[in-house]
Structure formats: C-alpha cells, structure tokens
Design brief:
Layout lengths: L2 H7 L2 E7 L6 H11 L8 H7 L5 H11 L6 H16 L3 E8 L1 H5 L5 H18 L3 E9 L4 H12 L7 E5 L11 H9 L3 E6 L5 H9 L5 E4 L7 H9 L4 E3 L1 H6 L11 H7 L3 E3 L4 H4 L3 H12 L3 H13 L5 H18 L1
Parallel strand pairs: 1-2, 2-3, 3-4, 4-5, 5-6, 6-7, 7-8
Helix pairs in contact: 1-15, 5-7, 8-9, 16-17
The structure holds hypoxanthine and zinc ion.
Hypoxanthine binds next to helix 4.
C-alpha cells in the first residue's frame, strides 16, 4: 500500500481543530439563508476566492465574519456533526475540538447556545460512530483579561462538557503572560491548559506558554525551532506540539511546504502531531495535511505511523482508551505488512 493509502486507513486523533473553522462555504451560504443573515458573498466561488490570506490577521478577519451565520443551537450542531462525519471517514477516532465562545457572546449569541449544539453533536457522534471527544474552550487573546475571566465563569458552570482551556486569535504583540492569571484560575478549577504559541509570535512566547501558563500542550509551536535550548527542553519534557502544515502554508508562516519543520520535529524526538486547524479555510482536513506534508518533506511509513501514535499519546483521553487506540493502530499496521 502506498503512503496515501496508509494515511487514509490509519486510526488517529485530531487535537488542533477550531470548530468554527470547519464552516464550509456551502454551509455558510445555506445557514445565511436559513437565518436571514446577509453575507458579502453570493456564491461558493466568491467565498473560495476571498480565502487568499497574507497572514493570520487576514484570515481571522474572514473567520470572525464567517461565523456570523451561526445563530441557533442547531447551527452549531449541524456544523459539528458535518465535521465529525467527514473526519470519521478519514480514520479519526478521537477529537479534541476548540470553540471560541467570546466571539459568539460578543455578537449576542449565548454561551449555552454554542456549547449546547457542539456538545449534543459530540454526544450523538459518540453513540452512532466510534468517536470519542474532548472540548477545549479558547480565550481570545485580542480581547482583555476581564473578558477571558467572564468566559471562564461560564465554563465553570459546564465542567462536565469542557475539559481544557486554550488561547487563540491574533498572536503578534499578545504574549501568553497577559493571560497568566486567568490560566492559573482555570487550572485551579481543574481544567487542562493548551495555548497557541509560536505560530507568528517568537520562540519566547512558547517559553512563556510553558512557564507562565503551564500548558499541557503547545498549539503550532513552529517558532520554537529558533531556540535549540527550548526544543531540547520540549523533547526532555515530551511536551506535545499540535502542528498544522496547510495552515502554516496558507497563512504564510512558511513560503513552501518543504520548509515545514514536522520532519525535524520527529527526528529531534518531539511529540509532534499533524492537524488541520481550520480545514474549510486552509484547503484540507487532517488527512490532506498528512499527505501534503508527507510528500513535501519526505515522510516515510514509519514517520506517518509515529504521527498517528503521537496523536493518541498527546491527547487528553483516559489511559484505557489511549491503549485501545494504540492497539487499533498496531493492528491496522499489522494487516498491511
Ligand atoms: N490561529 C490563531 N487563532 C485561530 C486560528 C489560528 O490558526 N484559527 C482560529 N483561531
Ligand atoms: Zn489554531
């Protein structure tokens, strides 16, 4: 079996996925119609043509506009279920999904509306297909600490549905340490912690995500490679990295996929994983990310199997389910060799 065939059938986890970033152009148009929302576009082609980004902020401007069609609990349900069905077909058997409640509350949509739709879809998927999940609430780093504390207060009422907190949105000039207090409060409440760091920001932001936010996992982390001592520390601590190759390419973090550090990360012994970030905006779901980066940097079957195993090891799922997923990877590999 060729490498792409292996990628298609390997069981895997996806750990870096913004549910609002799975809003496909057709669904955006359908929901706009259903909800009477006016968009700047009339056709799928017009939307696709607008997805030509120079940097993270360029993308975020359209991402926040796009989510204006998500109004009712059912919209969040449909969005989430469409994603889960899609990636189940790609071998994904566990997901850890980000959502951005502050972006919804800011436009008058209740925390519970977004949360209810997403969690009901996650629960239904768990009943109808093999798919376990965790939900991660992200703080928006372009807003202030008070706003983040308000989101945390909401999350504390729904601990049974929210497993971890994260940090996303515009990174430049917004270092992790601005959110030290709210992350400390979240950790004290029992939430796990992750943060986007080193996507556009410097290696120092990865370091303060580790030291000040005490994260369990780093999202992106590409710029950590500017600091060899930091990489050595992350190898020593087996700190997971959730990397997103097509996102890095589309947001111009790299100018060519051959520059992507995933192979360097694996060879260094980092617990690196491959994920899709915002698949509808960046031109590929998780398997398209595996395939594109494998072709560009020359990953072999061993690397791809390692990435799938890393995705399970780096997840927040309990030890029993982790072992079950690792066994499934092994038996799939066994069937092929
Ligand atoms: N980076 C930062 N914030 C985000 C992203 C991203 O790629 N997607 C959605 N919010
Ligand atoms: Zn992201």
């Amino acid at each position: 079996m060729d490498l792409h065939g292996l990628i298609d059938v390997l069981p895997k986890a996806e750990l870096h996925l913004h549910i609002e970033g799975t809003l496909e152009p057709q669904m955006m148009l359908d929901l706009a119609k259903r909800n009477g929302v006016t968009l700047a576009y009339d056709t799928v082609n017009e939307i696709a043509a607008a997805y030509d980004f120079s940097n993270l902020q360029d993308f975020l401007d359209l991402y926040y506009q796009g989510m204006s069609v998500l109004i009712h609990e059912r919209d969040f349900y449909d969005l989430t279920m469409a994603y889960l069905e899609k990636v189940h077909g790609q071998g994904v058997r566990h997901v850890e999904i980000f959502f951005d409640p502050q972006a919804h509350m800011e436009r008058g949509i209740a925390f519970e509306t977004a949360l209810g739709g997403i969690t009901t879809a996650l629960e239904d998927a768990g009943k109808h297909m093999e798919m376990t999940s965790k939900l991660i609430m992200c703080f928006l780093r372009h807003l202030d600490e008070d706003d983040a504390f308000k989101a945390l207060e909401c999350a504390c009422k729904h601990k049974e549905h929210i497993y971890a907190v994260g940090l996303d949105s515009s990174e430049a000039g917004r270092p992790p340490e601005l959110f030290s207090r709210v992350f400390k409060a979240a950790r004290d409440e029992g939430f796990k912690a992750v943060a986007h760091a080193g996507e556009e920001g410097p290696a120092a932001y990865v370091e303060t995500a580790l030291d000040d936010l005490q994260v369990n996992r780093v999202d992106h982390g590409n710029r950590a490679f500017d600091d060899p001592a930091l990489i050595a520390r992350m190898v020593r601590e087996q700190m997971p990295l959730t990397m997103c190759p097509l996102s890095n390419l589309r947001l111009k973090g790299i100018s060519d996929l051959r520059q992507h550090p995933i192979k360097k990360a694996l060879d260094a012994g980092l617990l690196a994983t491959v994920n899709s970030d915002d698949p509808s905006y960046f031109g590929g779901y998780v398997n398209e990310n595996y395939k594109a980066v494998a072709d560009a940097v020359g990953l072999d079957a061993g690397d791809v199997i390692k990435l799938a195993k890393n995705s399970v090891v780096a997840s927040f799922v309990d030890a029993g389910r982790k072992q079950e997923l690792l066994d499934k990877i092994e038996s799939q590999v066994g069937r092929l060799t």
